[in-house]
């Protein structure tokens, strides 16, 4: 197995890329550019808007509607066909716009490329366009530079690089030149630099080892291109239902047509064979129009939009409407640690002084001399600063010391003004120390901070109760034990020391024979509200999994503190995960609560593993490295402070970067799905009632009870407002106490199908009675009464449709005011159909009077009351059964 780039020596790398320390020749650069192309990301061609538009007509229900519209156009029913075409075109345009908005992940990725680069070519330094870099180019780096390509470091001078967009971690990485023998993730490849990351401190020089799509950011782009966005459970459910319904409608229409033609052929025509066949054909078409809920897509979109608005109040911005509903089915949340579960702010948690009891004293005048010395060193051997506007500049660890001092009411500026810096020895990744020189207590003091092992090794004395003593082996052991104790709590530890100096000219040799003062321990602490949110998620049947670029020890400690990791749970690093087979991962998946030091490929693998087990997965992230997994997940959740790449690959953005907001959004998502089911049930119960009435009329040899225009008016205009109003119902109190729904369950799962069927039967029965009563005077009056009863029954059905378990009175008639408004508006719309001139369009004869309206309304009210009374009966039976089970009768 060949060595990876970071495992080779610089000499091996230079030989491999065919370069030298003074750079390539311009001739060689031109040759390589011609062979390998520019240093920029390449992408596959996207589908055109026209292709996307055509694809919207592949839906089975849309095809049926198109056939119906064409038939009606040929038959001369121009108004009906134009209405259907308009609805289909509107839905297609909305779909194309949504799809085009979702594209853009790769465009955002491209924007991270540096515009130009400082290179050595033919031994001379020059500035070139970053896209013209080739493998073998030697690039110079300074603080503030975007790194233009992947490469192996040749020189470093206190070089620190912010690799958060690739690793997810906010602390800059200290770079060095040492080869690494073992396999390590990107976050630990400290002799490498990567395209798109930023130099925060120091300087360096590297040789380019990868450009364009061969870089780490290029591999992320390839993953993004190859990742297919998942359809939501609702989309899958509606697609499946749409196909089944379309086949059923087609079969039913053909059967009806066949029966009609058979009757004509057997019993003979009424006079005009062509007219009779045409009527038979239009009867079959009417069934298709009655059965297909033309406004379904629009209503679902509107209900999802209402959910989007509600989620925005919970700090969740929805980029793709179906994501609202997906949240309600989420059973696994794979979340980043830094900034989402934690505060993304290094905080001093503890300190250690020999023979000094740890106790935070907020009055600096009461500090012990040892603690005062510890605080002074932490503030002076420190390059961070807080501006007048409150902006914090510098390394997160150094900022933590300033925050700690401010918290203890000691303004750090006072200390710095009192003891100005005279000289410094900057931090170096080889020494792992930083030292500064100050004039204090009438002498010059060298103040040092650094890694505990290094500082302890260079110390020969110790400060105890204000006195300097020899550092004994017992004391060394005690300090090492305390350092280990802090490390076991996943705390980051730094040590502090000082020494008097005679000379004022600092050299590296001065960092010896130090006086050890103490330790300070820090961590990025959890957000206060996260522990409760994790608990709420567990109650709702949602498993929380931490996926982080941080070290395993730190990740596990945080996970245990907030309740993500419990007794018996496992934790894996990315390298350990790579060593697992697919079967081993599946076997252990539900016990793994923490993944640390992971790669983008690891994240996608974890998400896919949960999806293959039938779970709906949500994935959070903010970096470029998160984008492929965000796109793969059922719902990708980007952080508001994250990269544009992550946002463009996600379905939802958290404006406050807070895990607790995800759980609040899940509640809204569950309620949205409940309300969509109520709206769909409402639509199909009404459509079923119409079909039952049509079939009964066919069997009895009556006229078709409705015209196509009447049915289109009800489906598109009258039914829309009540369905939308049902989308505004409040959540049930127990909504977050039930398990996530099965993503594979149908739209009519549970008792929804029973409810739809029962309500449809009652509506159909009311319409049949109305047509029968009207036919006593004339067939035309029978049709008018059928239409009138159907529109009133479907309007009033909004009340029982609000809940399958409780009546509208129990839920509160005015708890959802939109329902009452919808009923009033629909009643007014019905009145419009009775206006002279318009009533003829809707086939309502002149002898249709107030008496017929009263009969229609009475029949509709009777059906509605029966729906509500039945709920009370079912509830009473359930109570009796429960009592019987609790108190069984002794036989």
From TrEMBL:
EC id: 7.2.2.10
Gene Ontology BP, a term: export from cell
GO cellular component: plasma membrane
InterPro entries listed in its UniProt record: ATPase_P-typ_cation-transptr_C, ATPase_P-typ_cation-transptr_N, ATPase_P-typ_cyto_dom_N, ATPase_P-typ_P_site, ATPase_P-typ_TM_dom_sf, ATPase_P-typ_transduc_dom_A_sf, ATPase_P-type_domA, HAD-like_sf
One Pfam family named in its UniProt record: Cation_ATPase
Compartments in which it is found: Cell membrane
Keyword ATP-binding included in the entry's annotation: yes
SUPFAM superfamilies linked: Calcium ATPase, transduction domain A, Calcium ATPase, transmembrane domain M, HAD-like, Metal cation-transporting ATPase, ATP-binding domain N
Protein origin, superkingdom: Bacteria
Protein name: P-type Ca(2+) transporter
Record organism: Vagococcus carniphilus
